[in-house]
Amino acid sequence: MPSSRTQALGRRLRTLSVLALIAGCAVLARPALAQTCSLDGLPDFAGHNFPLAPEVGDISVSQAFPGLDFDSDPRRQLVLLLAEPGPPDPETLDHVYVLDRNGEVLRFENRQDVTPGDVDVFLDIVSKTVLASPTAPDAAKGESGLLGMAFDPDFASNGYFYVFYSVPPENCQDSSPNLLLCNRLERYEAFGDPPVVSGNGNPVTLLEVPQFEQAHNGGGLAFGPDGLLYLSVGDGGRQDNAQDTSDMRGSLLRLDPQAPPDYIPEDNPFVGQAGADEIFHYGLRNPWRFSFDRGTGDLWIGDVGAGDWEEIDYLPAGTPGGVNFGWAICEGFRSNDGVCNANDPDLEFPVIVYDRGASGAVIGGNVYRGTRAPSIYGLYLYSDFVMRTIWAWDPSFPAPVALGNGPSQPSSFGEDQHGELYVVSHRGTINFFADASPGSGGGPPPMQLSQTGLFDDTETLTPAAGMLEYTVNTPLWSDRAAKTRWLALPAGTTIGFSATGEWTYPVGTAFVKHFELEVAPGVFRRLETRVFLHQQSGWVGFSYRWNADETDAVLLPGALDEDFDLSLPGLPASQTWGYPGPADCLGCHSDAGGRVLGGRTRQLNADFDYTAYGGSVQNQLEAWACGGLLDTPIADASVYGAYTPVEQSGEPLDDRVRSYFATNCEFCHQPGGTAPGGIDFRFDTALGQMNLVSVPATQGDFGLPNPLRVDPGDHMSSILWHRMSSTDPSLRMAAGTRLEDTVATSAVAAWIDGNLDDSDGDGHLDFEDNCPDVSNAGQQDADGDGIGDVCECSYVSGQPLVNDADFDRDGGVGGADYTIWADHYMTAVAGFGEGDANCDGFVDDADETIWDANYESNVPPPIPFAATAAGAAAGGVGLAGVTLAWVRRRRYRAAPGRTPSASG
Hints:
The protein is α+β, with helices and mostly antiparallel strands. It is 12% helix and 25% strand. It is globular and about 90 Å long.
């Protein structure tokens, strides 16, 4: 016969299992509440006109500038074409820049009829470059010369651009014996319209890489979606360098040009540990060219092979640093000396390999985002220096598709301001791509909003049938703009619901957000309408800028700033609006953040007026569920969490501020996010785990003597508050905005000054205090369990506790407490109060009675929470496949040194 202890435990488990089932299946608890579904009559969305699966048609590779004769000049060896950052000026022709390996940067207008007389020399560093002429000794030439160039994202205002080139040994900073040359990264300045390099261009050296062999210098240079400068460096002809993280060679470096003197981003993977601080990724042989997809921010690397395989490497946007691409352990998937293992989780293997039998060197390219060749839109193009075949690839294709032959000795691909893609040849030719015959399944996005199929009447902004308007609890701050949101869900599909995580949306889903700016009292100017689209290869963003008549909007190829006159009391006479480019969209809609930011539970758990749909006011979660949009039935949305608007003064300040952080900061500032500093702004992260409070600032000091990210009790000494208050775009948080959100900064100031509590006055903030309600200045903890001695039962024996079953002393009774009690109840171990609710030194049936009384009468009802690792980390209890978490006024905070258990 079971013991009374076993029987009691069985009763308790059965009770909690029933509670879990009731909580987890709340839809069954209210079947009789026949609420009318406001979306019963929502028609299917007929579909939009955006491409989802590009299909390659016949591509022509044509001479881009037939009037130029670089190919007739034997001195020329072209290595790159690029353009100034930003969209083209509609009033003037944009320019393209071409690098000659000998040490010149040439510039001319981006038009097909350009002639040699239209070409000017933008930069001349021939006298400083190793490859000064074709007669230079072969040992000195090798793969040297002017190798790469990149414009600063703020080139229009600061005039900065960067070049990577080879310097003779007598001019190198390194004086090692047998030094053949060094490769130098320098910053130059150019000003004017068009920009001109005056004098010597005020060069500033950011980095030098010594080379002792003639091969494998790398030379790719580009700014990433995080605004930092990336540089590819080969292994220098010595393959062991690539796996030696103390050596910069064989790596992709990442630098912050705004952080002299060493220009090192503080979140590079080897900062503060063994390894060169400049390295971001490593294990590369000769990454001659790499690129960031301007549409998604994804990274593509062409790494030149050795004896057997050429390879293309790929990483999605937001991938943290420290990736090892495998050379020289592996070449492609081939093992060197039997060490390479294709299943090794510590190595990143290529997405494309091809045999070196008839090839010579892979030429990494770009994802095509232009309009001349619609059938290859969204495909990655690359080539080979010897074979010269142009290939196109998409992850949905079974294999790369050969588009035909490019020019002889192709050296690089390059983009102009329109997203058109060019291939440049060492022989001096420049070619571009166009559709010879249109494909049937692909194409670029529609050029006008009226062509997208999203609106029945664009001028009146009447959405197409089936488009669903919605709202969010805490909108992203957008410099005063008023916003309207719609969802276009493909017919016959549903959304994958998650209580706390990201939702999943089918391919073809489009989110539409429309922006208007108040320019006079009650007068609004249409700015842009953004579309966030789920294509087969992932999410991509488009922005349509409204014309002056506000009758239609035109697709923007890249970022753009525009000034608007204002006539509003208390505001300046004008305001600058920043339109994002496609890559900017993916900067906020990050991979780490889950891409879709507004379409999830805590944002949508709010009422909406569905009168326009034939319904009434109803909670959005409930309406979407009963309308068939979700894969999960929801009858009572109140059991789910919701963000709290920062302006809602009657609600707890902590909830308002943390909700604002989650909406405006979390997508970049979280593990795997693109922002530096290691801050974690996710809503459920305990305050002490955010890497925020009392942590020294690492990015600027605002003139403060000892700046902290958050200085408890003093917002004026807190860098976070200063960044939120600043109107300097280079300093502001969040990036991309220009105006202060005064409601938010006021709330954050109050939160810093008064809500980071020290309840017991012992000098330890509650979030880090092992006994927050009783003074314990020395933080004594005899048994090392994370609960201070003064909070343990052995120190308060015989005294009634505030919450007799609050074993973890977090201020509430919930799932973590049941785990503590059940573990000790089953093993009959007295644990200094852990499960000993009456402090008699035993964990027995009397403690179960106390637990039952506390649990059933003194806590809020349980909330269903996904049975995931996230649930366990939030203090949930795994029972019968159901994980519970209890939501209180104060969110659960694990005691320092303790990880809530999911056992029970």
